[in-house]
């Protein structure tokens, strides 16, 4: 089990009128998401699928009106849910997921929002009793190359990637640390950000990883990025976190619900 | 196990309304059938729950089913197993026998819908009884084990001939099967004639728009996009802090700033470059005229993110200084404004994989852009642009390119229990419709350029840096496959660079 500072605050069914709802607060960045799931509902004839349920994901922003970023977030969640929900169990119906960003450090940052949104959505789908093939869990990993001393992290939040056999890079690589679920301050200093989502069985559901170092572009940006083998080791670590700790978090959160 | 409540039987009229015009198999059962279709439909719902094959009248007297299937290959008969398990991984047809069968008189053809991975079986009658389909020809051999073993009688109708379709019709009515059959061949070939790892040929034309500061037209297969870049002068008001434009990805200091930046039409941190994608140009019948839909919005955001992730444009080259003479930049020259770049991508024709085409068009258009020399005029207190002098944008030396893959899962082969998957490089829209899993890799590779040509050194030895990976939908891709995809991305980047050099836009 994880150390306590890394366990998100989960409150189930805060919205009693919906079929299933969940409020999720990321322990480090304090990003708070509230999701509600309703379904199976009647579907608009335009969206009706003959043999599958239609999944609709609406992401509501914390401030302002929804823009392209929210559309993108909902399309990412939609494509993930499509491989999780057994849509053929309720053909010609609608499963509606509404996610409201309650609180966020940066309302425009995709990596900071995606992990809480996905985890919260999956929890509320479980509460709503929507038949799912498996469950998934998402974790956000930030890679810091030269970690400044000022970064405040919780215990167990930081780890290093072990390198197998490649000694010549040892001194350089030892300065690279990985921070789980970083907050906005840490992400601002990070070299790259990786949001990985794995199912309970270890299948890759979603990968959204990008270079995010600061800079003024042009020639100075040459040579940025990472080697694919570094990414694979990071993804393996993410898989371990999702499959072991993530599933444990879901299990504990739903302990008395008997749905998992 | 087929759950009984999942089996449905609909009338012929309903069927045409309900069914997707794809994924069809034709099933004929040698049973009698009263011609009263409308009457029988109601019964069909009840009877259909018992068995698998249900005839139009709904009275389940089918003791055997005959599957007449279509294959893109002339030798398809040989690939059909002679049992009742036919056509792909999880399509199973179980003839149900009933002892009290009336002699068959007419033939009904059923359309059977089956969706992969589901437990659902839907049988829909498509053709009502039709004498023209009845013929005395024997069924071809793989089907013979499925022909009904009815006692000889004069009322037994001759078995229907196999329904055959042209390849183009098969392509329309059963895209998933059509694609699978192609990919199961050895060597695997896609319906468009490419191998799975082969991308489409593309052409590039730059600076064809006279009013834009830079433009590019990219055509890859039947996907064609136009990218135009227009610079606008953004004057820094006195007291405004210009530092927020000096870095990509610099985080806002408070939520109120973030709110303000949203309202300011995209001029946010590192937001001097604004991207927009227009799909409502009649490029595809899926995207009608109107406000931008989900895909167009997602693409706009993705491309903006790509600009930010790659830090393609040097923000230094977008500064407008307070100086009279362009030759030298004094270190204490004051920044009076910025060039804001509006990148508009119009899709002319959409045949899949628009992200790669759009990103390549953006890179080429930025590479060919020429901005007028601008400077701050003290007396007028405005920014003035020179009418004849232009300067290029300074970009990165190693240009990043995206490569998109679509994953198609193949039915279970005989040897191993699990189904295999095929990653298709540069999918077209026909393949995109069938794939549920997509992988986009943004990578840069430092190529050696010798005498204006890419050096012929093996690509495997080159160092490829990945800057962005996006994998969405589905669950079948493995981490090892992602690694092999980066190698394919490298070879695609080499082709991109070559085509850029042809347009006299050398990467250096």
TrEMBL record, chain A:
User: What sequence ranges are listed for the domain Exoribonuclease phosphorolytic?
Assistant: 9-131
Q: Which InterPro entries match?
A: ExoRNase_PH_dom1, PNPase/RNase_PH_dom_sf, Ribosomal_Su5_D2-typ_SF, RNase_PH
User: Which family does the record assign?
Assistant: Belongs to the RNase PH family.
Q: Name one GO molecular function term.
A: RNA binding
Name of the protein described by the UniProt record: Exosome non-catalytic core subunit rrp46
Q: Name one GO cellular component term.
A: cytoplasmic exosome (RNase complex)
Which Pfam families does this entry report, sorted A to Z? Answer: RNase_PH (PF01138)
Highest taxon of source: Eukaryota
Predominant location:
nucleus
Q: Does the keyword Nucleus apply?
A: yes
- Its Gene Ontology biological processes? nuclear mRNA surveillance; poly(A)-dependent snoRNA 3'-end processing; rRNA catabolic process; rRNA processing; U4 snRNA 3'-end processing
Identify the gene encoding this protein.
Answer: RRP46
rRNA processing keyword on record:
yes
Compartments where found: Nucleus
Give the keywords, sorted.
Exosome, Nucleus, rRNA processing
Matches recorded under Gene3D superfamilies: GHMP Kinase, N-terminal domain (3.30.230.70)
Automatic annotation (TrEMBL), chain B:
Region (Disordered), start-end ranges: 27-52
Q: Where in the cell is it found?
A: Cytoplasm; Nucleus, Nucleolus
Specify the Exoribonuclease phosphorolytic domain's residue ranges. 198-372
Matches recorded under InterPro entries: ExoRNase_PH_dom1, Exosome_comp_Rrp42_subfam, PNPase/RNase_PH_dom_sf, Ribosomal_Su5_D2-typ_SF
Pfam families assigned: RNase_PH (PF01138)
Q: Where is the composition biased (Acidic residues)?
A: 28-48
Hey, what's the signal peptide range on this chain?
none
Q: Name one GO molecular function term.
A: mRNA 3'-UTR AU-rich region binding
Which GO BP terms apply?
exonucleolytic trimming to generate mature 3'-end of 5.8S rRNA from tricistronic rRNA transcript (SSU-rRNA, 5.8S rRNA, LSU-rRNA); nuclear mRNA surveillance; nuclear polyadenylation-dependent rRNA catabolic process; rRNA catabolic process; TRAMP-dependent tRNA surveillance pathway; U1 snRNA 3'-end processing; U4 snRNA 3'-end processing; U5 snRNA 3'-end processing
Alphabetized UniProt keyword annotations: Cytoplasm, Exosome, Nucleus, RNA-binding, rRNA processing
Q: What is its main location?
A: cytoplasm
Output a single Gene Ontology CC term carried by this record. Answer: cytoplasmic exosome (RNase complex)
- Please report which protein family the annotation says this sequence is part of: Belongs to the RNase PH family.
What the entry lists under PANTHER family is as follows: EXOSOME COMPLEX COMPONENT RRP43, EXOSOME COMPLEX EXONUCLEASE RIBOSOMAL RNA PROCESSING PROTEIN
Full protein name: Ribosomal RNA-processing protein 43
Q: Which organism is it from?
A: Orbilia javanica
Taxonomic lineage is:
Eukaryota, Fungi, Dikarya, Ascomycota, Pezizomycotina
């Amino acid at each position: 089990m994880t150390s306590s500072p890394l366990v998100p605050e989960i409150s189930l069914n805060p919205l009693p009128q919906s079929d299933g709802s969940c409020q999720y607060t990321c322990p480090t960045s304090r990003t708070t998401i509230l999701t509600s799931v309703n379904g199976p509902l009647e579907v608009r004839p335009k969206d009706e699928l003959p043999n599958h349920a239609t999944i609709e994901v609406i992401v509501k922003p914390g401030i302002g009106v929804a823009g392209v970023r929210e559309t993108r977030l909902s399309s990412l969640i939609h494509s993930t849910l499509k491989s999780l929900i057994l849509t053929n169990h309720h053909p010609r119906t609608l499963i509606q997921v509404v996610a409201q960003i309650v609180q966020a450090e940066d309302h425009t940052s995709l990596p900071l929002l995606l992990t809480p949104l996905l985890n919260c959505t999956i929890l509320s789908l479980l509460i709503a009793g929507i038949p799912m093939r498996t469950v998934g869990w998402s974790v956000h990993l930030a890679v810091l190359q030269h970690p400044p001393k000022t970064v405040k992290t919780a215990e167990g939040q930081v780890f290093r990637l072990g390198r197998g056999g490649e000694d010549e890079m040892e001194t350089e690589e030892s300065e690279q640390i990985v921070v789980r679920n970083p907050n906005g301050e840490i992400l601002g200093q990070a070299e790259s950000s990786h949001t990985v989502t794995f199912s309970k069985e270890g299948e890759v559901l979603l990968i959204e990883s990008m270079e995010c170092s600061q800079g003024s572009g042009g020639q100075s940006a040459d040579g940025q990025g990472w080697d694919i083998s570094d990414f694979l080791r990071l993804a393996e670590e993410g898989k371990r976190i999702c499959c072991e700790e993530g599933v444990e978090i879901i299990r504990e959160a739903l302990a008395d619900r008997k749905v998992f | 196990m087929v759950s009984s409540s999942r089996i449905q039987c609909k009338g012929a009229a309903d069927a045409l309304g309900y069914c997707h015009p794809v994924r069809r198999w034709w099933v004929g059962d040698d049973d009698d059938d009263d011609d009263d279709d409308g009457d029988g439909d109601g019964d069909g719902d009840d009877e259909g729950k018992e068995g698998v094959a249900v005839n139009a009248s709904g009275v389940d007297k089918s003791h055997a089913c005959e599957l007449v299937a279509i294959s893109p290959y002339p030798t398809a008969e040989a690939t059909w197993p002679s049992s009742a398990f036919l056509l792909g991984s999880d399509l199973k047809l179980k003839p149900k026998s009933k002892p009290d069968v009336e002699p068959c008189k007419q033939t009904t053809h059923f359309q059977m819908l089956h969706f992969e991975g589901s437990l659902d079986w839907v049988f829909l009658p498509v053709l009502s009884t039709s004498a023209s389909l009845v013929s005395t020809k024997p069924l071809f051999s793989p089907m013979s084990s499925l022909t009904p073993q009815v006692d000889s009688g004069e009322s037994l109708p001759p078995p229907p001939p196999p329904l055959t379709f042209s390849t183009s019709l098969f392509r329309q009515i059963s895209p998933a099967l059509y694609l699978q059959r192609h990919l199961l061949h050895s060597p695997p070939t896609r319906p468009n004639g490419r191998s799975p790892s082969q991308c489409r040929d593309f052409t590039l034309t730059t600076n064809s728009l006279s009013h834009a500061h830079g433009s590019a037209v990219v055509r890859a297969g039947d996907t064609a996009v136009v990218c135009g870049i227009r610079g606008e002068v953004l004057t820094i008001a006195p007291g405004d802090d210009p530092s927020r434009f000096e870095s990509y990805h610099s985080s806002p200091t408070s939520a109120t700033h973030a709110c303000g930046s949203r309202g300011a039409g995209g001029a946010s941190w590192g937001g001097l470059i604004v991207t927009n994608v227009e799909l409502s140009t009649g490029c595809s019948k899926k995207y009608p005229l109107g406000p931008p839909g989900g895909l167009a919005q997602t693409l706009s955001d993705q491309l903006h993110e790509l600009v930010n992730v790659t830090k393609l444009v040097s923000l230094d080259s977008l500064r407008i200084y307070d100086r009279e003479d362009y030759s030298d930049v004094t270190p204490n020259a004051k920044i009076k404004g910025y060039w804001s770049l509006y990148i508009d991508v119009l899709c002319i024709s959409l045949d899949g994989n628009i992200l790669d085409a759009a990103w390549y068009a953006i890179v080429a258009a930025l590479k060919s852009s020429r901005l007028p020399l601008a400077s701050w005029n003290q007396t007028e207190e405005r920014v003035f642009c020179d009418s004849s002098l232009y300067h290029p944008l300074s970009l990165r030396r190693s240009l990043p390119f995206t490569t998109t893959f679509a994953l198609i899962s193949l039915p279970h082969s005989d040897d191993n229990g699990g189904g295999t998957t095929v990653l298709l490089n540069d999918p077209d829209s026909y393949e995109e419709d069938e794939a549920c899993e997509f992988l986009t890799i943004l990578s840069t590779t430092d190529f050696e350029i010798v005498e204006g040509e890419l050096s012929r050194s093996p690509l495997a030895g080159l160092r490829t840096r990945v800057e962005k990976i996006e994998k969405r939908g589905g669950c079948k891709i493995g981490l090892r496959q992602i690694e092999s995809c980066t190698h394919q991305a490298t070879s695609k980047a080499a082709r991109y660079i070559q085509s850029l050099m042809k347009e006299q836009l050398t990467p250096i």
